[in-house]
Amino acid sequence: MGREKTVRFGVRALVSAIAVATLALTGCSGQPTGADSQSDGLMPVRFALDWTPNTNHTGLYVAMQKGYFAEEGLSVEIVDYNSALPDTLLDAGQADVGISFHDASTMAQASGAQVIAIMSVLQNWASAIAVRADDTSITSPADLDGKTYAGFGEPAELPLLTQVIRNDGGTGTFESVVLGTSAYEALYSGNADFVIPFFAWEGVEAERSGNPLRLFHYTDYGFPSQYAVVIDASREWTDNNPEDAAGFVRALQRGYVFAAEKPDEAADLLIKANPGFFDDEEMVHESQRILSAELLRDKNGNVGTLDAQHWGDYATFLFDNGLLSDEDGKKLTTSPDWSTYFTTKFLSPAEQPTTESRK
Fold first, then answer.
1. Pick from 236, 214, 273, 245: nearest CA to 64
2. How confident is the model over 45-69, as pLDDT tens digits?
3. CA-to-CA distance for 122 and 102, rounded, in angstroms?
4. Does the model's pTM come out above 0.85?
5. Using CA atoms, how far apart are residues 252 and 351, in angstroms rounded to an integer?
6. Which residue spans within the chain are E strands per DSSP?
7. Phi and psi dihedrals of 97, rounded to 5?
8. Which of 306, 269, 295 has the alpha carbon at shortest distance from 284?
9. Which residues pair with 44 in a beta bridge?
């Protein structure tokens, strides 16, 4: 599923980052991918990926492969992943829509980025605290006191872990090393005690490689839920192209509804759209089954929805821990109006799983 890059923002100050983004786009030109992008006479929409293709993106590729965007008069052009974050590309006018995350979107908007969340993809945390399944010394987060965490250096990691451990009765004191994707090897080899993987990707990968993990889910210990993955859009694009934005969201919802109802068929379409990319195609299927069963639908069984309290609970945690800064890099001292960070006006209640598929 991939790990997004550090989400510390000061977007208005990131002139060099935007220049890098522009250069990257000029170099790889956002090559179109999928059925829709081959059609003529359609309105192009530039979509920025956060990483290489994975099951977070399945609904997008389903919608492209099945022609849902074309039915809305749109042609989606993929802006391939590079070192520039999608929200940076959106704010710079180098993409129209893209993959983001609850924390990334909140941090970007707090710092002045002209982006807005228009749809959710994953309704809850896709990551969890993980230890080796054979490590009997750790039975709950409180046991992580004094242990070593191998992480990614993202802003919210340590405050999140500290809070979860404290909620379980620990002190929240532990050692931390930034290892990036080498964190998993450090865990397997015993050089670290815990990590926070995406359980529908690295968790599946660990199981299939003979290194099973034991997971502690944050919300089981009183920590707020989050939208693990969201779709952000350029505010300028949505303001100037409301009909295209509505058609885009309608088609994308259809893609993720299909993925929720038919995970194996959806996984096949993701693989078909990216021939030769996945070394372990069965892992893609396993990952998609987990997302479809556990994360694509909200508590009412709907796909794509956004809710003010859901957004605000986790965003308030970010604010309370001093993780939000304004466009000048100064920490926010007043909590924003979270309802302005997303919009539901483009969501279609009609594009939802059937009653039968929810059983």
1. 273
2. 999 999 999 999 999 999 999 999 9
3. 10
4. yes
5. 9
6. 43-48, 74-79, 97-100, 115-122, 129-132, 148-151, 175-178, 213-216, 229-234
7. -140, 155
8. 269
9. 75
